[in-house]
Structure formats: structure tokens, C-alpha cells
Amino acid sequence: MTVYTERQEALAGVIDDDSSRSDWTDWKWHVRNTIRTVSGFEKVLGIKFSDSERKKHEMTLRKFPLAITPYYLSLIDEEDYENDPVFLQSFPSPEELKIERCDMTDPLHEDEDSPVPGITHRYPDRVLFHISNLCSMYCRHCTRKRKVGDQDSIPSTSQLEKGIEYIRNTPQVRDVLLSGGDPFMLSDEKLDWILTKIGEIEHVEVVRIGTRMPVVLPYRITDDLVNMLKKHHPLWINTHFNHPREVTDSSRRAIAKLADAGIPLGNQSVLLAGVNDCPRLIKTLNQKLVKNRVRPYYLYQCDLSEGLSHFRTPVGKGIEILESLRGHTSGFAVPTYVVDAPGGGGKIPVMPNYIVSWATNKVVLRNYEGVITTYTEPDSYECNTCDRNCADCNLQLKEEDAEEKAIGIEKLISDWDDTLSLTPEDNERAERNSHVA
Ligand SMILES: *Cc1c(COP(=O)(O)O)cnc(C)c1O
């Protein structure tokens, strides 16, 4: 496997006259030499925009800054850069300045659902912890576009300590998702410190890191980093490949190091118009990932953040893609397709319908080939009616902490809570009735 192509060698020379062979695989060299201007981009890629194009790009950059690592830029095909998936994900489009009516600065209410700065606590048992607002490459489709390049919001040690304190004081949190920005923009020492602090909290059972480094700067995955991470198991990592072209030799090496360290790897892709909105492409990507020990985890519908309208597809596109995966390829090459609900509702899975009909004792189902089949349900099923008293139940769940309350639909279908319906807050009928009393 080569880690340094002729093209990359030539690019390194254009970027930095004094560059040596070892620089290309030094992640700090890439961070130092990240391309941040339109003219820098033109120079390195060897292209020239017209004056009007350049003006448009520079205007876009004033709102949403540009950053591309030399490595990621080296993947762009300069012959057809306008359609290049790497170009489209990293270089601004004038379309980003188009604000649609549905656009929001914080569609997922990450700031609203934040008990302390840096923490988003949306789900009962896990939190998102933003430990870095820096990225080596600014994805044009970033859902946190509002924060990109906001140098002031790099969390200080005392802010990180407050986040850790929140986790320590919140016993429900058993899963901590380190995100950002890219957590791997922090030094090994800082990460080690954070992971150690979180590791000391007894109720935290698992830590995950979300990083795009294996895709945009794979040399960040150094032996030192991996040796440090290994000390903090159980640790999971999710990365962010969107196109098969991103699975390069360098990326494969980075992934292999993490997998060899016993870190389970997942991938979160975003469905992007003009980049990867193709069933064959997503299938190829997922098969490549599986071959490299990365489990496709989520396929995201593009969020309603400002500046992303040109990337959005109809939800039907995602369902069509899922239809082409399930049954057609390995089950573990099929991600869950999700719409992250605007307003902080969280991830909602969406998929093709497989239940065709249902009677009292039979379900009619269809498979991926269109075969329609029936599953006969049991005549006698001894239902375990649950009163939350595990000690008296035959199922032998010996957990002491079965105290958690049911939420939402789970509550409606539970045996031990007699809630019959959930009513929206702004229900007019309920409002009227409250006055009648
Ligand atoms: C995505 C997300 C999580 C993690 O969700 P999983 O479905 O467990 O992967 C947690 N918190 C927030 C705010 C999220 O957006």
C-alpha cells in the first residue's frame, strides 16, 4: 500500500517548498497547511476561477469559512472537479447563501437541549459532549455550520470540567458521545485527560468518539493516539465516509489501526444530492466499509440547517436506497436511515414497509424480491404482564435498577402505566375543557 502518491508529492511541493516526504504523513503539517482561501485552493489544484466566480466564492466564505486539508484536497479529480464528491463536500457553493423558509440555525435544538455549555442531553441515558469546535476540514454539509470557524468557542479546560461534572452528577448517563468539531483535533494528552476523567465516573458504561479524521486526515490516527485510546475501553468510534472514493489506502490504514486496537467502528453517512444520492453508490460504499471492518451505522437525511438546501434530497430517495440494500447485501452493510427531527425530537428511523397486512393470527409480509408471504402467529402466547417487579418474574432479569420510567409510546403500550393517550401541548380541545371545569 502506498501512502504517498506522485500527485500528493507534487501537491506537497506546491503548498510548502520545504516539504519533505515525511511531512505528508505528519498530520500537524496538514493542519498547518490547511487551505483556507479561494486563491490558495486555485493554486494547489491548478485551476482558475473567473473573476465573477471567485467573487461569489469569497462572499460565501465570509459567511461559511473554508478549510481543506492538503490530503483531502489531493483526492479531488482536477479534470472534473465540479462534479467531484470531495470537491462538493469541501469547497463552498454560492447556493449556501440561499436561505429557505424551512432553514434554521440550530434545527436539532442542540443549544436549547443543553444543560451546561458543551453538553446536549436529549435522550434519557446518553449525552453528546462537544469537546472541540475545531475541524481539520470544514464539511460544506455540516449540521453545525453556525459554529464552524468560530474560534471563540474552543472549550476551555474549565468548560470541559463543567461538562464532566454534569455527567458525574447525572447518574442516568451511561453513554457519552464525544463530538465537536472533531475531538481528534485535540492533543493526545488532552484527550487522554478527558477520557480518564470520564472513565472514572462509575455510571458511565461506554464512551464513543465521532470523528471524520480517518476520511479527511487519516494520518491523525498515529500509533501514539491508538495506544492511548486502547487504555480507555470500552470505546467505540464512529466516522463519516460519504463516498467510496474516500476509502483510500491511507484511510484503510487508519481504520485498520483503530480496529486492531479493539475499537468497534461505525460509519455515519449523510445523504447528499449530487454527491452520493445513488443506491449503487451507497451499496458500494457500505460494502467497502464492511470489508474494512467498519459497520455502517446511520444514513442521515440532510438536516434543515442554513446553507444546506442544495444538498437535500426527498426522504423518498433514502427509502429507495434502503430498498436496494436490505436483502440485496449483508445485513451489517445496511445502515439505519434516519431523519433527525427538527426541534430536538431526535433520530427517527425511516424504511420501506415490509408489513403488507395483518389479521388476528397472521401477518402478511413481503421480502426484498417482492415475494409475499405469511407468518402465522402463535395461538397461545403466555404474555408476561409486567408490573416492574422483576423479582417475581420468571424471566430472571436480575438487575436492581429497573426503576427507570417509561417515556412516550413505550409508556402507552406498557402494562404498568395506565396512560391512555398523549396529547400535544397546544391541543385546543384540552385548552377549552380546562376552562369549562
Ligand atoms: C445522535 C445523538 C445521540 C446518539 O444517538 P444514538 O442513536 O444512540 O447513536 C445522542 N445525543 C444526541 C443529541 C444526538 O444527536
From TrEMBL:
UniProt source species: Maridesulfovibrio salexigens (strain ATCC 14822 / DSM 2638 / NCIMB 8403 / VKM B-1763)
All residue ranges annotated as the Radical SAM core domain in the record: 121-333
UniProt enzyme class: isomerase
Reactions catalysed, as given in the entry: L-lysine = (3S)-3,6-diaminohexanoate
Descriptive protein name: L-lysine 2,3-aminomutase
Gene3D superfamilies associated with the record: 6.10.140.1170, 6.20.120.40, Aldolase class I
Similarity comment text for this entry: Belongs to the radical SAM superfamily. KamA family.
InterPro entries in alphabetical order: Aldolase_TIM, LAM_C_dom, Lys_aminomutase/Glu_NH3_mut, Lysine_aminomutase, rSAM, rSAM_sf
Modified residues (N6-(pyridoxal phosphate)lysine): K347
Domain of life: Bacteria
A GO molecular-function descriptor: 4 iron, 4 sulfur cluster binding
Keywords annotated in UniProt: 4Fe-4S, Iron, Iron-sulfur, Isomerase, Metal-binding, Pyridoxal phosphate, S-adenosyl-L-methionine
Pfam families attached to this UniProt entry: LAM_C, Radical_SAM
Cofactor or coenzyme needed: [4Fe-4S] cluster; pyridoxal 5'-phosphate
Catalytic activity, EC: 5.4.3.2
Positions bound to [4Fe-4S] cluster: C135, C139, C142
